[in-house]
Amino acid sequence: MRHRVKVQASTDARSDYGDITETWATTKTRWCEVIDTRGREFQQAAATQSDMTHLLRMRYTPGITSENRLELGDRTLNILSVVNTGDRNKELLISCKEPL
Description:
This protein is mainly β.
């Protein structure tokens, strides 16, 4: 595993004016392996959009869910699903989406 990834959780922060905004805080930093990268383009509402999907493998870490997001270098990945391979608590396969 050669990529360093930051696991982030959403928190609410209150501004000086009382507004609540969503912020992301790093909760864990782990090593991972990027196994698969695919890109696609699609037409939606008369505009071309694209996204990238990634499949990451990392050692089992409790508490990572689709409510979290990952930072891989300068890219932000939204977690689609987290699979505990074989329910053995050895590794996680994390399916992510990177909007472009």
